[in-house]
Specification:
Arc Repressor Mutant, subunit A, five-stranded mixed beta sheet, 14 helices, alpha+beta, Aminopeptidase, globular, three-stranded antiparallel beta sheet
């Protein structure tokens, strides 16, 4: 088997996308999946079910959104930042402290930094208990746009990012803020990691979740020359110790993998289709997807409409061990209809693809609380959808 094909299967197996029930079933499987992947990205777009639920549904056959909410309520997960907003295993809390301390006393997203307001908010939450942004009045004059966050919301987010507040729950999609001492379980370690410890955490998390990784993918969207140097040093040490070997997946871009995993038998793939979230851990690093899967993917909701090729929220389609196309869907929940707006397949596929696509789309409709599929005639005829 060619090396790149084996690496693809390793990557998908490590992501939990090849075998049925890779992590098991139910709430415990959801926790195992997040602990293995390292994080699940949170996203607000709800054209179809939100990304964090979609990612977990793709890996846990009987996934229900309530499983995720229950794990947050049980303090098995916490909300913070990986490379983006995410739910993370509570056992990894200490590795968020480095970013929190870097932001402490410095503004995060906003041009202003009101220490007096921050103190007042902390005092009020300490006295009254968990609060939402809407619990704080905005006395500014004039119209407020959706993006024009009131000062209290800015302060809440700043305090959250620097670790003085945590998100204890969400009501709808609104964050509920509380003090860390009332959220963190007693067993959580709160010692801030050294830079080298944090580097090892990033390496271990990335290799566990993907099987192999380049230095660039390990430090994806993380700033700082010191961190990159530390990661490189740790990788070189592991190479010298024989814990890792390097393989070339692209020119001048070596990837690192354990020799045992590289020499193991390649995981099997079967004729199954998975409809993947644009924010899925397996595809979020677009360069990696191009290099490993030869799949040039871009989510188009951030692209001007006139420049879109595949649709506003086009979803990658995984068949066997390859990404083969894109599907743009919209869930009309009030009518319980899942609309397939466009479908594009990049290559000729075997006879197993059409029935697997039909099955996947029926499952996806059910996941989105839809009873019916709406597909335009040309797509339905070409791909022989078993419409329901």
């Amino acid at each position: 088997m060619p090396l790149i094909k084996k690496l693809r299967r390793i990557a998908l197996e490590q992501q939990g996308l090849l075998r049925a029930e890779h992590f098991g079933r139910g709430k415990k499987a959801v926790l195992r999946a997040i602990e293995h992947l390292g994080y699940v990205q949170i996203d607000t777009i709800s054209v179809v079910e939100r990304a964090h639920h979609h990612v977990l549904w793709s890996r846990v056959p009987n996934y229900q959104p309530r499983f995720l909410h229950q794990l947050v309520g049980e303090r098995s997960l916490f909300e913070y930042w990986f490379h983006a907003a995410a739910w993370l295993p509570m056992s990894d809390y200490r590795f968020a402290l480095l970013r929190m301390k870097q932001l402490d006393g410095d503004r995060n997203w906003f041009k202003t930094f009101d220490r007096k307001l921050n103190r007042q908010i902390l005092e009020r939450i300490a006295k009254e208990g968990p609060l939402l942004a809407r619990d704080f009045e905005d006395d500014r004059d004039g119209r407020k746009e959706w993006w024009d966050w009131k000062p209290a919301k800015q302060a809440l987010e700043q305090l959250f990012m620097q670790g003085e507040l945590m998100v204890t729950a969400r009501e709808g999609f609104q964050k509920v803020y509380d003090l860390p001492e009332r959220v963190l379980p007693d067993w959580v370690e709160t010692r801030c990691p050294t830079l080298d410890e944090f580097s090892c955490y990033l390496i271990d998390t990335t290799l566990r979740a993907h099987g192999f990784a380049t230095q660039k993918s390990i430090t994806y969207l993380r700033k700082g020359r010191a961190l990159r140097d530390s990661v490189n040093q740790q990788l070189q040490q592991r190479l010298e110790n024989g814990d890792l070997v390097s393989v070339n997946i692209a020119d001048n871009n070596p990837a690192f993998i354990s020799p045992e995993l590289l020499e193991s038998r390649a995981p099997r793939s079967k004729p199954q289709v998975k409809i993947i979230s644009p924010f899925d851990n397996a595809v979020i690093q677009r360069q990696r997807v191009r290099e490993v899967f030869n799949f040039d993917y871009q989510i188009e909701c951030y692209v001007p409409q006139v420049k879109r090729q595949f649709g506003y929220f086009c979803l990658p389609i995984l068949y066997r061990d390859q990404f083969v196309g894109r599907m743009d869907c919209k869930a009309h929940r009030s009518r319980k209809v899942l609309e397939v707006k466009s479908l594009s397949v990049d290559r000729k596929l075997d006879d197993g693809f059409i029935p697997a696509l039909n099955e996947a789309l029926r499952d996806f409709a059910e996941f989105n609380s839809c009873l019916y599929l709406q597909v335009n005639t040309s797509i339905a005829d070409e791909y022989k959808f078993a419409l329901c």
